[in-house]
Specification:
It is a single chain. Helices cover 59% and strands 16% of the residues. By secondary structure, the chain is α+β, with helices and mostly antiparallel strands. It has a four-stranded mixed sheet with strand order 1-2-3-4. Strands 5-11-10-9 form a four-stranded mixed sheet. Strands 6-7-8 form a three-stranded antiparallel sheet. Helix 2 runs parallel beside helix 4.
Length: 378
């Protein structure tokens, strides 16, 4: 889900709620399938416009139901010290964006089960309203909307209890395996493989539904199966990545003794003797034992060609800052996550007491991850 496709909606209890534009497809499908399918069958005799706004009302109800479900996860996570960046709704529902794994199996289990419990609660509430509406002879559309939202929340709760990671039931299974084995990575591997198998089963069921004539339902089963299968594989890969860099400082993965340049040479000399020779995009600038900045091809590009012979590297270099330097003791996992979220540059100079000791790049880390993933698959 790219940032360009995400809209910030509101903040509540310190959690930012965002909407990925793909969720609008889900809302459209909910409204269309209910207005054109379920409602005319279950509540005949109403106008087409009534069925339409009933479908829209249910889509809005689903929106708040998903937010409530994810808030339940987030509030429990907060109690165990886990930082939740926000809640994002997308085409397959919603996700609470955790910045780190749960600290222990108990936290994982309670956080996971909070979601289905919240959906069961909403189903009970909507059924209670539906019963009251029926007994009080409220308008038929109100009865239909409440009944449908109760049914949807019940379905969401039961589906999420499936022991297939990353569904809530899969997280509960991972918590159980984690508590028994004492190994989060092994627990994630097992529960993710089950999740992948579950996703494959949904795809097969979707194909069978299409063969039997249920095109819309079959397509949804296939799409959900693809999502579950992909998310399960992604979770396994994430655990492998975390295992590579777990508790490891940047110093272990950096390139030592990177090629550096002095600040007093001309920009043209920088081009002739360094850029054209080594083909790197960024060079640390070192004055004696001290790192004083960095210079990149972007800095050179902004300089008119006639001035390259007279201007010094010191005139165009970028000073050292938190944006382009990192301590050798920094957690590699934290740096990688910051880079992937684009909060940091893809190249960092590694320093120790003001001295340049190495360089670490996102490209090098991703290549290492790629090799490890290939070996895991093999």
């Amino acid at each position: 889900m790219g940032q360009a496709w995400t809209i910030r909606l509101f903040s509540l209890l310190g959690f930012e709620v965002k909407l990925d534009l793909s969720w609008l497809l889900l809302a459209l499908l909910i409204s269309w399938s209910l207005a054109g399918g379920m409602f005319p069958v279950e509540y005949p005799g109403l106008s087409t416009a009534t069925y339409a706004w009933m479908g829209v009302a249910c889509a809005v109800g689903v929106f708040f139901s998903i937010v409530f479900h994810e808030f339940a996860h987030s509030i429990v996570a907060r109690q165990f010290g886990m930082n939740i960046r926000g809640i994002t709704l997308f085409v397959f529902g919603g996700v609470a964006e955790m910045e780190q794994e749960p600290p222990n199996p108990k936290a994982e289990f309670l956080m996971a089960i909070a979601g289905p419990i919240s959906s069961f609660m909403l189903a009970y509430i909507f059924w209670g309203i539906e019963s009251l509406a029926t007994a009080s002879s409220w308008p038929t559309p109100v009865v239909g909307i409440c009944y449908t939202l109760a049914l949807i929340n019940l379905t969401v709760a039961i589906f999420n209890l499936a022991p297939a990671f990353p569904l809530d039931g899969g997280r509960m299974l991972r918590a159980f395996l984690w508590s028994r084995k004492g190994d989060l990575h092994a627990a994630t591997d097992i529960s993710s493989r089950i999740g992948g198998a579950f996703g494959a089963m949904l795809i097969v069921l979707g194909i069978l539904a299409i063969v039997r004539g249920n095109l819309i339902g079959g397509m949804w089963w296939i799409l959900i199966g693809i999502f579950v299968r992909g998310a399960a594989a992604g979770s396994r890969h994430q655990q492998i990545v975390q295992g590579i860099f777990q508790d490891q400082p940047v110093e272990k993965f950096m390139v030592r003794e990177p090629i550096s340049v002095p600040p007093n040479i001309s920009v043209q000399t920088l081009l002739d003797d360094f850029v054209y020779e080594h083909h790197f995009k960024m060079y640390p600038v070192v004055d004696g034992p001290s790192l004083v900045g960095s210079v990149s091809i972007n800095d050179i590009r902004g300089l008119p060609k006639p001035e390259r012979a007279t201007k010094k590297v010191a005139d165009i270099m970028q000073p050292c800052s938190e944006a382009n330097t990192v301590s050798k003791d920094t957690s590699t996992n934290e740096l990688l996550q910051d880079m992937l979220r684009r909060k940091r540059q893809p190249r960092h100079l590694v320093v120790d007491n003001g001295r340049l000791v190495g360089m670490i790049t996102l490209k090098d880390m991703l290549e290492l991850i790629s090799v490890r993933l290939q070996l895991e698959r093999g």
